[in-house]
# Entry
Amino acid sequence: MLAEPAPSLSDLALGLVVVVLALRLGRAPGPHRHWRTAFWWVGIAALAGSVHHGLIKHSERWSGPSWAVISGMVVVAVSYLLAATVAEVLGPRHGRTFWLLRSIGIVAYAVLAVTGHAGVGALLACESLTMVCILALWGWAAWHRHPMAGPVIVALVASAAAAATKAIDPSVTRRVALDPTSVYHLAQIVGMVLLYLAVTKPRRPDRPDRDPRALLG
# Structure
């Protein structure tokens, strides 16, 4: 018997869809390799989440460590999303920029840890700062008419909207026999499909004066 049937099955659906998208990305010639790695980590985290909600939640001893491991997978996935964004928007030689932006979430969590507020929730909250950096980079790219910017921003906003569904009152989602976490998992499928479509969209050569990478020399 599954401990949390709806969250487990919805996480399984999310994981399977994202793994299929990751496999398809592996055969696509255009997208940067960091996109594929990010999709793999999201898919693996979702599949692990399915096991967590379905089986490990039965154990008070292992539930906490299990969720911590899954949270770590999410952190890795977000890191690759940032790396892919930096490569696409600024160019592949901006490793220092990646580490500068990545350090924002890491430093924020370190401060919380020192002040006694460490935890999985705090870690994921700090990762939202990294997502803000990702959105800011794509916003800057949109300003300079980067061909991928619009579709990627739509996908990221859809994912953010999916995350917001976790705040829905359970009495509302109960009308469709779900809980907020399950709704989030299912809504996140839309965000990941949109991101896949954005990064696999045929790329047209842009004018040099409109290419953010050209502007940076």
Q: What stands out?
A: The CA atoms of residues 101 and 133 lie 7 Å apart.
